[in-house]
Specification:
mainly alpha, MetI-like fold, 9 helices, 82% helix, globular
């Protein structure tokens, strides 16, 4: 936690120094940005909540769909042989390139934005879940089987604990990409969201609003990252 806060402080110090050295009115310093962000936070809260809601829905759908699929692939060689080529073929495709198609099929509203988040994350969840289950030693199952455990108990006591650390790592790695893609998609077909607010401020040449929006979006991403870390520490104590 201290290292993360140190990184946050260091970033703002460097930002302050660069803003002062360049002395360019387009590059606003962190002090002015944060003061303005606090002032406009009540008006910007609806944009923050809209973006946060899209992220949470996309993450939830990806985890709830991707985890069972990954487990299924790990447990069934036939299913793995069917789905594995599809996963590895579709995963490297740049998801932003598919945005026009998604918007044509799902519209330019909420659905297309959430689909983009799911498309980015779900393949990573599937692969990490599948690999985590495949890496479980057979001895772990034998112990529970000898005690008369059923499939549900094996899932709860062996499979899920094996998946959780990999899942949290996947969420941490993907979070930055998810926020970046959401920012891009929010510039289309909506008047709510941090992407819309930042681009609108830029178009209005209101640079202080733009910087405040970028700062609040970054803080939201930082807090989500910390929340994932806290969940990892809470639910994966045995792995530390």
């Amino acid at each position: 936690m201290k290292n993360k806060l140190y990184g946050l402080v260091l970033f703002n110090v460097l930002w302050f120094i660069v803003a002062r050295l360049t002395d360019n009115p387009v590059l606003i310093g962190p002090i002015e940005t944060y003061i303005h962000a606090v002032k406009i936070l009540p008006d910007m809260s609806s944009h923050l909540l809209a973006s946060l809601q899209r992220i949470c829905i996309g993450l939830s759908i990806s985890v709830l769909l991707g985890t069972p699929i990954g487990i299924w692939m790990a447990k069934s060689k036939r299913i793995d042989n069917i789905l594995n080529p599809l996963v590895y073929f579709t995963y490297p495709i740049p998801k932003l390139a598919l945005l026009p198609i998604i918007m044509l099929l799902a519209g330019i509203g909420e659905t297309s934005k959430i689909i983009m988040i799911v498309m980015i994350l779900i393949f990573q969840v599937i692969v990490s879940s599948r690999d985590a289950v495949k890496n479980i030693p057979a001895e772990n199952y034998n112990v529970l089987i000898s005690l008369g455990s059923n499939k549900l108990q094996q899932l709860r006591e062996i499979i899920l604990p094996a998946i959780l650390p990999e899942l949290f790592t996947t969420l941490r790695v993907a979070l930055g990409t998810i926020i970046s893609v959401l920012f891009f998609t929010e510039t289309y077909g909506t008047e709510k969201g941090m992407g819309y607010y930042i681009v609108d401020s830029w178009m209005r040449i209101s640079y202080i609003d733009m910087y405040a929006g970028i700062a609040l979006l970054s803080i939201m991403g930082f807090l989500l990252f910390l929340l994932i870390d806290l969940a990892d520490s809470r639910f994966c104590k045995w792995n530390k």
